[in-house]
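One such shown below:
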Amino acid sequence: MTPEDIIKALYEETMVGNAPAVLSLTQEGLSAGMSPDSILYDALIPSLEEVGARFERGDFFVPEMLIAGRAMSGALDVLRPLLALTGAESIGKFVMGTVKGDVHDIGKNLVNIMLEGAGFEVIDLGVQVSPEKFIAAIEEHQPDIVGMSAFLTTTMPMFKANMNALEKAGLRDKVIVMVGGAPVTQEYADAVGADGYAADASTAVRRAKDLIAKRRALANA
């Protein structure tokens, strides 16, 4: 296969979530001398962006997004160390976690895959993340954005508890806060003082990019 053939096949197999084919094609491309950057930015990311666009149009649903994301995730495991060696810069650093009292992680994991696919460095704190753990991670990793997920209406008040903890620790102005999860709305995000909200994974990536761009523009003004 030519590099062009591999890019085309990677794009198509990622979209249908064929993980073994995506992994095999990634390894074939690398063996043929293709750069990890080319595989990521010419095939995998455009494919996942198209998956996101189809989801937004109602042509794809959560299962299709998940299997496409998982297919890409396998390729990313191979590419990540190689991209680090080439000094490929990440768009930004994103700390992510499901709030204390909540063990749901499918949505969070999908957002993580989409963020990584878009070029973010993601630090996933997992589920049941206490305010103290969010603060420790922000202090350690100094991310651009911290993302908090809640799937239950009973755990949504943890957003406010986390925001209060950030204020108390003097970190609120140092980080962008995004919230999301099935029962969360824009109104609720505004009420707790979050900087951003997204209803789904592809919107989360776009919103994260916008928020970082705005913050950097302000910093350089």
